[in-house]
Structure formats: structure tokens, C-alpha cells
Amino acid sequence: MNSNLVLEVDRLSGQQIGLCYHCHKCTAGCPVVDAMQYGPDLLLRMVALGRDDAIFKSRDIWLCVGCYTCATRCPNGINIAATMDGLRQISLARGYAAGERDALLFHRLFMGVVKRFGRSHEAFMLGLFKILSKVPLMNDIPAGIGLFVRGKVPLLPARITASAQVRQIFQRSKK
Ligand code: SF4
Ligand code: SF4
């Protein structure tokens, strides 16, 4: 439990990975575990053992969708979604290529749109994502048209009134 990675992840996530006694409840409830190579429980073990390279070369930390199911199930109150965020930060800081390129692209586009408009705008973000990712461009067009016709997806983004405060949040988070 004394690997440098444990200390780094604990500091970034505000969690205590050392509390994990590997009951597997988090992994049993994770909705994307079938697509993962290791799963959340094993990933925490690998952090404890200092298996940095294997963790950062796997897709797992990029497949986590941050649903918090693991956090609600953990008997020790470990918020694994937060540890996944920490692992992603460390992975990028150390220069690893994201195991899921499109996940990183999606994240950056989402944050870029929130920074610009103060809130998410699905049509704008997904349009950009489709153009820049490897996802086939025309795949979701029928669903998108249906959502637009029902008024669920506005064509133009609406700006919020507190956009200056949102910009300040981004500036502070950079510091
Ligand atoms: S549910 Fe909590 S204690 Fe159990 S394996 Fe997952 S992180 Fe560890
Ligand atoms: S937050 Fe991530 S690791 Fe936890 S259950 Fe959801 S997808 Fe799985």
C-alpha cells in the first residue's frame, strides 16, 4: 500500500485506497465491467501494487463512465469514480496515450462546450465529436432528428447569465 501511485491517487481523489478489502461489490455492480480488462476492484489492487504501466496502458480508466454505482455499493465508502478521475489525470501528466481515444476527445469537447456556453449543448458537442472521432458520422442521424422534432435538442446553444462565473471556475481549476 506504499506505492507512490497510491499516495498520488489518494491525494488527487481525496480517497483512501488502503481501506479496500477487495470484497468485489464495486465490480459486481459496474455497468461497463464487461468491456474492461481488469474492472474497478482489480484496478485498485494494481494501484496498491504499483503496477503503473499496466494500468495506464489499459482502457479501463477511460471506460469508467463515472456513474458512482461503485461508490454507493462500497462498504468502506471509497469513491472509485474519483480515483478513476485521479488515474486519468496522472496518466495524461505522465504522457500516456489514452486507452480510449474517443473517451478523451468526448471529455475535452464536453468541457470545451461548458466553458464556452456555461452548459452542455448536445447537438453542437455531438456534431463536433462525430466529425473528429472514428464513430461513423451518419449513425445517430435518425435518432437526432427525432429528438430535434420533439424539441429535446435545441439547434442553437443558449448562453447562461453567469458565464463570467463559469469562466472563473475554469481559471481556478487550472491553477
Ligand atoms: S466495494 Fe469497496 S472495499 Fe469492496 S472491492 Fe470495491 S473498493 Fe474495495
Ligand atoms: S463509476 Fe466507473 S468504475 Fe464505478 S461503477 Fe461506474 S463505471 Fe464502474
Number of domains: 2
Largest sheet: none
Q: What overall form do the CA principal axes indicate?
A: globular
The low-confidence parts are none
Per CATH, which architecture of the largest domain? Answer: Orthogonal Bundle
- The CATH class of the largest domain turns out to be Mainly Alpha
**Helical amount:** 55-70%
The count of strands amounts to 0
Average pLDDT level: 90
Note the gap between the termini.
29 Å
Q: In sequence order, what are the helices and strands, one letter per element?
A: HHHHHHHHHHH
Bound molecules: iron/sulfur cluster
Radius of gyration: 18 Å
The named CATH superfamily of the largest domain: Alpha-helical ferredoxin
What structural class do helix, strand and pairing data support?
mainly alpha
Beta content comes to under 5%
CATH fold field value of the largest domain? Fumarate Reductase Iron-sulfur Protein, Chain B, domain 2
Please count the helical segments.
11
Description:
- There is one protein chain.
- The chain is mostly helical and 175 residues long.
- It folds into 2 domains: 90 residues, Fumarate Reductase Iron-sulfur Protein, Chain B, domain 2 (Orthogonal Bundle), CATH 1.10.1060; 74 residues, no CATH class.
- The protein has 11 helices and no strands.
- The structure holds iron/sulfur cluster (2 copies).
